[in-house]
Design a protein that fits this description.
Layout lengths: L8 E6 L5 H8 L5 E3 L34 H7 L3 H8 L15 H15 L3 H15 L11 E5 L7 H7 L4 E6 L2 H8 L8 H21 L4 E5 H6 L1 H11 L12 E2 L2 E2 L14 H8 L4 H15 L9
Parallel strand pairs: 1-3, 1-4, 2-3, 4-5
Antiparallel strand pairs: 6-7
Helix pairs in contact: 2-4, 4-5, 7-11, 8-12
């Protein structure tokens, strides 16, 4: 593992409640993909830039200390959902999902990888993903996997770093209409205000549209609405851009290849259908609908949402 590594990563990013988890679960059963079990959350507490006050460090592309040891690098990666499920499964929202995995085993495998490759952001990330699947004992392999898939909310903003660090990586950004997205975020215990949510939503879309032009062959955008309407038609071209087949598995969300009745608890979207999506948007008041229209107006045409509601 080094600058000449053939490591292939598809990193999914999406604003909160924008369908990132749904898309992640739809890719889960693909026979040519190692799909991370939960949100990858590769960030570290050392992330520090102009976006730090807006987005949690755990969702960002990692920053490592120059004088750290490989063990310290591993421990710095936040990866909250996987570590909680492994170390304290009784408090994990995924506690009912079978998962034969030891974080300590993954750490040992990670350290062996770094012993061969040396430390760097690229090598650390590669070792982290490879070690995850080597430590996951009941992972259902096909033997055909060639691309690793991670998902971290809002990591789209770090696309430039991702693609510079990993020359064979691609980024997939998922966007959902802002009305349904905000209505779903309102269901969280401590939701963002409309003003703060729309600031983050529009900023994320700004980065997505910028990178779509700057990295035309390695950056991709899908609308959650298209994924819900026909997931194979929406995600098949992404697979083909990676040199993979447009598998029939794209038609249904899965966990470790086993079909899910609903996407929850991976995200707030339980039933990813066009009808449920529109009904969610209509939960908002008329005042909220118009305020969101005002705050997102510059992006509604770009994503064909102007007449959504």
């Amino acid at each position: 593992m080094n600058n000449g590594s053939d490591f292939r990563l598809l990193m999914i990013g999406a604003m909160y409640e924008n369908g990132g988890n749904t898309t992640h679960r739809l890719l889960d059963g693909h026979p040519q993909m190692f799909v991370y079990p939960f949100e990858s959350q590769p960030g570290t507490k050392y992330v520090n830039d102009m976006l730090t006050s807006m987005f949690p460090a755990k969702y960002r592309w990692p920053v490592f200390q120059l004088d750290a040891t490989p063990y310290q690098d591993y421990k710095a990666i936040i990866d909250e959902e996987c570590k909680v499920r492994s170390r304290t499964p009784h408090v994990s929202k995924f506690r009912d999902m079978p998962f034969d995995f030891s974080d300590d085993d993954r750490c040992s495998i990670y350290l062996e990888c770094i012993k061969k490759s040396g430390r760097s952001t690229a090598n650390n990330v590669e070792a982290f993903f490879r070690a995850t699947f080597n430590a996951w004992k009941d992972y259902r392999r096909t033997g055909r996997e060639v691309v690793y898939v991670g998902y971290s909310p809002i990591i789209t903003v770090d696309t430039e770093r991702i693609l510079q660090d990993l020359p064979h990586a691609h980024v997939l950004h998922v966007v959902r209409n802002p009305w349904s997205a905000f209505a779903d975020t309102c269901k969280r215990p401590v939701p963002l205000s409309l003003e703060n949510y729309m600031l983050a939503w529009t900023l994320t879309q700004y980065f997505a549209l910028t990178f779509q032009v700057k990295f035309q062959r390695r950056f991709h955008i899908v609308r959650a609405e298209d994924v819900m309407r026909d997931p194979k038609a929406a995600l098949g071209p992404i697979c083909e851009a990676l040199g993979l087949e447009a598998s029939e598995s794209l038609r249904k969300p899965t966990w470790n290849g086993q079909e899910l009745r609903e996407v929850y608890p991976w995200g707030t979207i339980r039933t990813p259908t066009p009808e449920a999506n529109l009904a969610t948007a209509k939960e908002l008041s008329a005042g909220q609908i118009e305020e969101i229209r005002l705050r997102t107006r510059l992006y509604l045409d770009a994503f064909d949402y102007k007449s959504y509601i």
